[in-house]
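Journal club side-thread
Mid-discussion, someone asked how the predicted structure for our own chain would compare to the paper's figures. Pasting it here so we can look after the session.
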Amino acid sequence: MENYILILLCIAAFAAGFIDAIVGGGGLIQTPVGLILLPNLPVSTVIGTLKIPAFSGTSFAAFQYLKKVEMNWKLLGVMMALAFPSAFLGSTVLTYVSNDFMKPLLLVVLSFLVIYTYAKKNFGQHVEKTISARTQILNAVGISFIVGFYDGFIGPGTGSFLVVAFIALMGFDFLHASANAKMVNLSTNFGSICLFVLKGKIIWAIAIPMAFSNAFGGWLGAKLAINKGNSFIRIFFLIVVIGTLIRFAYDVFFK
């Protein structure tokens, strides 16, 4: 592999880590760039290799959030324990079937999400205290299974879906949603990584340099999100979700 290809992959990994640390959606950059620059590799090998930098960047971002943002460890314990096997299952299914049939559905979901977030100005700006602890636990179980499987099976936009789930179903604001989403995303990434390692789908010579780049981007993005707060994260969230929407629209109508 040419050196310039690895440099471009590392640049993409940095950008992905930066965006993912703020609102999720780093896979929107990293995944297509990897598939374009590594056309001779099987798709499952590219996806498996990219899971390593994704995990690295999420780890550094999560560490920054842990130092500044209060976490609900009871909820996180439940969600991380369930998200791991769900992502493992999703990645297992991916090795046998195509995920293209889900993209039209995601196009509709993302369109609704953009409209709702833009129209509802106070969405994610404050912590919602009317949701009971029992309801939060039940919602946490559902989120972990569904989003965990989604991350293993499809991937791009997982962090953004987690942020929305934490806001809409758990009553968090954008900052706390982003922080807690990172911890769950760590678990989903690790579940997928275990599957891809067992299948021998990871090229470490590519994954490790990208991991350092993604980690630096994740560290920087998390610090910016913590300093800027909810309003900044909301705007960034809209930009990333619109980008994800365009990506899926391209896959559905033109690819």
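Post-session note: Residues 60 and 119 are 33 Å apart (CA to CA).
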